[in-house]
Amino acid sequence: MSRLDSFIRRVTAQRDCLNHVAGLVAAVPGPVLELGLGNGRTFDHLREIMPGREIFVFDRQVAAHPDCIPDDRHMVLGDIAETLPGGLARIGAPAALAHTDIGTGDEAANARIAAFLAAALPPLMAPGSVIVSDQKMAPAGWTALPLPDGVPAGRYFIYRHP
Ligand SMILES: C[S@@+](CC[C@H](N)C(=O)[O-])C[C@H]1O[C@@H](n2cnc3c(N)ncnc32)[C@H](O)[C@@H]1O
Q: Which domains does the chain possess?
């Protein structure tokens, strides 16, 4: 498969999963957490498909398209190892949805981040909330949900609060 096809499949799966989980949390109150602003693509998509939701974005830097940068109150700058613990005070209420997209090509680093997130995210999340992730995680007591039609197993991961 060409790298172009591979990229298209990856972002198509990402979009389809975000659209799917937006429906799953429609009745769950609370803000949205976006972990990894990057160039702002998925932040921009989330604010389009979830109008009216507060979205807090976590990244160690701002390097996004100028149209896709949250305001200062919603941009949480720093390493998530520092900003996520105690993050409830910043976001104001338990979150309905968290999207994590901070994986890299380094499998060992990805495993460390996934283990950290599995422990650090649940205290920020509301009952019935959903975590959608580019990395396999094992948040204790959370249920792994099926992916939307057309998204191959292992490409993205969805977990629901018990
Ligand atoms: C793949 S990009 C996110 C792409 C984004 N979802 C988009 O659609 O444009 C990953 C981002 O995660 C951030 N990141 C990676 N590890 C991080 C960490 N430990 N703390 C904070 N940000 C981190 C990087 O700075 C980078 O901007």
A: 3-160 (3.40.50.150)
Q: Atom 15 (ligand 1): residue with closest C-alpha?
A: 102
Interval between CA 143 and ligand 1 midpoint (Å): 25
Tokens of 112: 């460390």
Please indicate, yes or no, whether the overall pTM of this predicted structure exceeds 0.85: yes
Ligand 1 centre to CA of 77 (Å) is 11
pLDDT digits (tens, 9 = 90+) for 28-85: 999 999 999 999 999 999 999 999 999 999 999 999 999 999 999 999 999 999 999 9
Best residue among 45, 101, 102 to mutate for probing ligand 1, ranked by most atoms within 8 Å of CB: 102
Nearest ligand 1 atom, CA 59 = 22
Give the per-residue pLDDT at 103. 87
Residue 14: exposure state from Cβ atoms within 10 A (0-12, 13-18, ≥19)? buried
What are the DSSP E strand ranges found in the chain? Answer: 32-35, 55-59, 75-77, 95-100, 125-133, 143-145, 157-160
Shortest-distance atom of ligand 1 to CA 38 = 27
